[in-house]
TrEMBL record:
Glycosyltransferase among keywords: yes
Glycosyltransferase subfamily 4-like N-terminal domain residues: 16-153
Full protein name: Glycosyltransferase family 4 protein
Residues annotated as transmembrane: none
Organism from which the protein derives: Chloracidobacterium validum
């Protein structure tokens, strides 16, 4: 590559969670190929000592410090920040002259109001790519016509789209210049446990020999935690750890699930860690459990960062979802038991199978086929292709 072709600007509004973890690994892998990578993000995005990329914290943080009860104020704040962040992106592209820009988490919200700036830059030769973590955009915000217009506007400036499984993207309107490339979701680099399995269980008042399940990460309705709690009624031996915080104000609160566990008589087998879980503590949790729950609804058709994390610690999963990368990876590498989504009976049967006849996962093959190096090589080949 020529010197001018080695600079990449990576745009990321999420400062924590699976998307932020993904961006860190992907930026590091891209930097390891020899390019100069700048992560344009928020001040809350953590400083990683081992980062091979530059962190430029000039975006506004979408998450408010405290929950905003009034939905009009909440929506107005979100809209202002979204438009301001894309304005800042366009300004920085103009100021720095960077020609390759990767959007770390594609989204269409309010795109008719911000995509025009990016289309102008694309006409001037800037190459825009995006990681499409959620390629099936069937969650409708506002009128259907606005939703479709937003999807078309968001895809408009893109030349490159990166997905985790082959799919015909619904771009709402023709975009003949758009190329779709499949990239793997690499396993996360997390620290080794700092406690023994027994110590962590004792800390959480868990029996040393009982099967323990872990629901890890953002708590949201699509993860079917209510069905998991219902399944515990029919499976009397497993304990459940729920570790994470509610993703947004529109989701059911943790108190809903606590109350359900009380009503169904399984609260004594549930443990709740209602906060962001740092990496070292996450390592201890994964070392202490027997299976990870990825029990998504049928509407979920994306990849799962928690699956890659579970693979890192070699913990099998109980998974459900719609057709997509999660189902494909679990079945291809025998990473756990996959069941039909949104079905308590299927969850019960899958849980019993997982505990009585554990799978034999192909951990090494999964990690070799789904490395961050392969991810970065495919991204770099497309983003810097002078077609």
């Amino acid at each position: 590559m020529a010197e001018t072709a080695q600079r990449l600007l990576y745009f990321l509004e999420e400062s924590y969670g699976g998307t932020a973890d993904y961006a860190h690994e992907q930026c590091n892998a891209l930097a390891a190929l020899g390019m100069t990578v700048t992560l344009l993000t928020t001040p809350k995005y953590p400083c990683h000592p081992e980062a091979g990329y530059a962190r430029q914290p000039e975006l506004l943080e979408p998450k408010p410090e405290r929950p905003i009860a009034n939905r009009w104020r909440r929506g107005g704040r979100y809209a202002w920040i979204k438009l301001e962040n894309y304005r800042r992106l366009a300004r920085i592209i103009d100021e720095t002259g960077v020609r390759q820009v990767l959007i770390g988490s594609f989204g269409e919200y309010l795109a008719p109001l911000w995509a025009g700036r990016l289309r102008r830059l694309a006409r001037e030769g800037v190459v825009f790519g995006a990681v499409i973590h959620d390629p099936v955009r069937d969650y409708v915000v506002g009128p259907r016509w606005w939703h479709r217009w937003s999807i078309g506007a968001a895809y408009g400036p893109l030349r490159e789209a990166f997905v985790h499984e082959a799919i015909a993207l619904d771009t709402a309107r023709p975009n003949p210049a758009l190329r779709v490339t499949v990239i793997p979701h690499g396993p996360y680099t997390y620290p080794p446990p700092t406690r023994t399995r027994l110590d962590t269980r004792q800390q959480l008042a868990l029996p040393p020999d009982a099967p323990v399940l872990l629901a890890f990460g953002h708590i949201r309705d699509a993860k079917n935690l209510d069905l998991v709690i219902e399944s515990l009624v029919h499976c009397p031996t497993p304990y459940l750890i729920v570790a994470g915080r509610v993703q947004s104000a529109g989701q059911r609160p943790v108190d809903f699930y606590r109350a359900l566990a009380e009503q169904r008589g399984v609260a004594h087998r549930c443990r709740w860690i209602e906060r962001y879980v740092p990496n070292d503590e996450a390592a201890d949790l994964f070392a202490a459990v027997d299976a990870v729950l990825l029990t998504y609804s049928g509407a979920f058709r994306s990849a799962s960062g928690v699956l890659a994390l579970a693979a890192h610690y070699r913990v099998p999963c109980l998974a459900s979802s719609g057709p997509g990368p999660l189902k494909t990876l679990v079945q291809r590498y025998q990473l756990g038991v996959w069941v039909e989504p949104d079905d308590v009976a299927a969850l019960v049967g899958g849980l019993q199978d997982l505990l009585t006849s554990p799978p034999q996962p192909s951990w090494a093959r999964f990690q070799a086929d789904n490395s961050w190096r392969v991810n970065a090589q495919r991204v770099a080949e497309r983003m810097f292709d002078r077609r």
